User: Which sequence fits this backbone?
C-alpha cells in the first residue's frame, strides 16, 4: 500500500466513527486490531438487520413469484423423494442410505456449501460502493450474508423434512445432528469464500476460474451417487473432507451404519474458518479499497 492514508466513515449504531487506514500494518498492534474487531461485531446489529432485509428484497425484486423462488429447489427435492418412494426407489428396510435419498440430500448439501462460498467470495465486488464510500462495518456485511444463506438453508431443510414425513423413516437418535451439520456447511463455505474474497476482487482470473469450480466440486464429491468402495473415485472421495461431511450428515439423518463424527466437527471447523476469513478480510480491506480507487 502507498504512503497516503484512506479515511473511512462508518456508521456504528447511531454514532459516526471515522477510521483512518494508513500504510502501517494493522498487525503491529494485534490487541488493538482484535479489540476493534470485537467492537464492530458487537455494534453491527442494526447494519446486519438492514442489509439482510435489503439483500432478500433485492434478490427477488424483479421476480413475479418473489420469495416463492426460494422454495423451488427444496420443493423439487421433496417431490423427488416422494416419487422415489412410490416408484420403490427408496426402501425403508435397507440398512444403507437409499439411492434417491442419497442423491437428493447430496444436492441440497452441495447447494448450501457452494452458495455460501460464492456469496462471501463476492464480498468486495458485490458491496464495492458500500465498502469504499460509507457507512457499513465490514463485519455487518459478512454477518448479513451468512444469515441470508442460513435463511435459504432453513427453507431447504424444512421442505426436505416433508420427504421424511411422507417417504422415509428418520433416525430419532441422530437426526438432530443434521442441523449443526448444515450450519457448519454454511460457515465453512462462507469462511473459504472470505479467505479468497480479496484475491477474487483483485484478480479477474480467479473469477473466471471459479466458474469451473462447481464442476470440479461435483466430480470429487459424492453428491449424486456413492462410490463403489474401491478404485480411483473412492481414493479421491477418501481425501476430500467435504465428502466425509456429506456422508456423515446422510448417516446421521437416515441412521445408516457409518461415522457421524464429521457432522459434529464441521460446526467448530466452520466457525474457525469464518472467523479467520473475517479477520483476513478486515486486514485486506484497505489494500482492496486502494486498488479499486486507482
Assistant:
Amino acid at each position: 500500500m502507498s504512503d497516503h492514508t484512506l479515511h473511512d466513515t462508518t456508521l456504528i449504531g447511531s454514532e459516526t466513527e471515522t477510521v483512518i487506514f494508513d500504510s502501517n500494518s494493522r498487525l503491529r498492534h494485534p490487541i488493538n486490531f482484535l479489540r476493534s474487531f470485537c467492537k464492530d461485531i458487537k455494534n453491527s446489529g442494526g447494519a446486519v438487520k438492514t442489509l439482510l432485509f435489503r439483500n432478500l428484497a433485492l434478490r427477488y425484486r424483479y421476480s413475479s413469484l418473489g420469495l416463492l423462488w426460494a422454495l423451488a429447489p427444496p420443493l423439487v427435492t421433496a417431490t423427488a423423494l416422494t416419487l422415489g418412494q412410490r416408484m420403490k426407489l427408496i426402501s425403508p428396510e435397507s440398512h444403507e442410505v437409499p439411492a434417491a435419498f442419497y442423491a437428493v440430500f447430496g444436492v441440497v448439501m452441495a447447494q448450501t456449501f457452494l452458495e455460501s462460498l460464492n456469496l462471501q467470495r463476492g464480498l468486495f465486488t458485490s458491496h464495492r460502493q458500500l465498502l469504499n464510500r460509507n457507512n457499513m462495518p465490514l463485519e455487518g456485511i459478512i454477518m448479513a450474508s451468512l444469515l441470508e444463506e442460513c435463511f435459504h438453508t432453513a427453507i431447504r431443510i424444512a421442505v426436505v423434512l416433508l420427504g421424511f414425513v411422507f417417504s422415509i423413516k428418520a433416525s430419532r437418535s441422530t437426526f438432530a445432528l443434521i442441523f449443526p451439520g448444515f450450519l457448519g456447511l454454511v460457515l465453512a463455505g462462507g469462511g473459504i469464500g472470505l479467505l479468497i474474497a480479496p484475491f477474487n476482487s483483485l484478480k479477474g482470473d480467479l473469477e473466471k476460474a471459479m466458474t469451473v469450480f462447481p464442476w470440479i466440486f461435483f466430480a470429487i464429491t459424492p453428491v449424486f451417487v456413492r462410490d463403489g468402495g474401491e478404485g480411483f473415485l473412492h481414493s479421491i472421495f477418501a481425501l476430500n473432507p467435504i465428502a466425509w461431511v456429506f456422508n456423515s450428515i446422510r448417516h446421521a439423518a437416515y441412521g445408516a451404519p457409518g461415522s457421524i463424527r464429521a457432522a459434529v466437527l464441521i460446526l467448530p471447523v466452520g466457525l474457525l474458518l469464518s472467523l479467520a476469513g473475517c479477520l483476513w478480510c478486515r486486514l485486506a480491506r484497505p489494500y482492496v479499497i486502494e486498488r479499486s480507487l486507482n
In short: The longest strand covers residues 6-12. Residues 1-9 have pLDDT under 50 and may be disordered.
